[in-house]
Specification:
Length: about 220
């Protein structure tokens, strides 16, 4: 199976977590895009969606799924999204698609976070994938210097502007042995909007696509 076929399999299998009559939290990326295709097949059974990016909003809308403003919704029963890496504690690196801040906001109001990934994303220790950080443009150099002091190697993602009008620094050479502490530390640097570490709000369950089928993983 190709990686995209594995992504499709997990995207469709996430449908089982969607409760009829609810508003569904929807992530961003190629795996989440498969989930949107799946969601469209049951669109008459749901009230609508809260989206984590302009790209996902566009796709949901093209299917005729109503997209609600996050401010209109107190709580979601489920948020479904991909990840760039996930460990066995269900902590993740996200933001490869630059949607990390909205993903963090929408997942924060969800009772359950269902992470959908192919097997290549499951790791013992987070950090092989460069850690994305959304930064206010005027703080880019300052934040980069603070990260250098921490022994990290931030690289400016050229040409990318987030849906919120900010920029992305991708941090290389990190071995993330304490994800919660690092998430809190990076988030406290002035000018950082969000770090793409999802350790405080981790996934509740991961659907992982393997060649022999989709497996459900829970935190160890
Ligand atoms: C976007 C994300 C995505 O979930 C992550 O990059 C995974 O993407 P894909 O499903 O395309 O592999 O965090 O900001």
């Amino acid at each position: 199976m190709t990686q995209d076929e594995l992504k499709k399999a997990v995207g469709w299998s996430a449908l089982k977590f969607v409760e009829p009559g609810t508003i569904v939290g929807v992530g961003t990326g190629s795996t989440a895009s498969h989930f949107i295709d799946a969601l469209a097949s049951i669109k008459d059974q749901i009230v609508g969606a809260v989206s984590s990016s302009k790209a996902s909003t566009e796709k949901l809308t093209s299917y005729g799924i109503e997209v609600f403003d996050c401010n209109e919704v107190d709580s979601l029963s489920v948020y479904v999204d991909g990840a760039d890496e996930i460990n066995y504690h269900m902590q993740m690196i996200k933001g490869g698609g630059a949607a990390l801040t909205r993903e963090k906001i929408v997942s924060a109001i969800a009772k359950k976070f269902v992470c959908i990934v192919d097997e290549s994303k499951v790791v013992d220790v987070l950090g092989q994938f460069p850690l994305p950080i959304e930064v206010i443009p005027m703080a880019r150099s300052y934040v980069a210097r603070e990260l250098f002091k921490m022994g990290a190697r931030p690289i400016y993602r050229q040409g990318v502007v987030t849906d919120n009008g900010n920029v992305i620094l991708d941090v290389h050479d990190l071995i993330i042995s304490e994800p919660i502490a690092l998430e809190n530390k990076i988030n406290s640097i002035a000018g950082v909007v969000t770090v793409g570490l999802f350790a405080n709000r981790k996934a509740d369950v991961a659907l992982v696509g393997y060649a022999d089928g989709v497996k459900e993983l829970h935190a160890r």
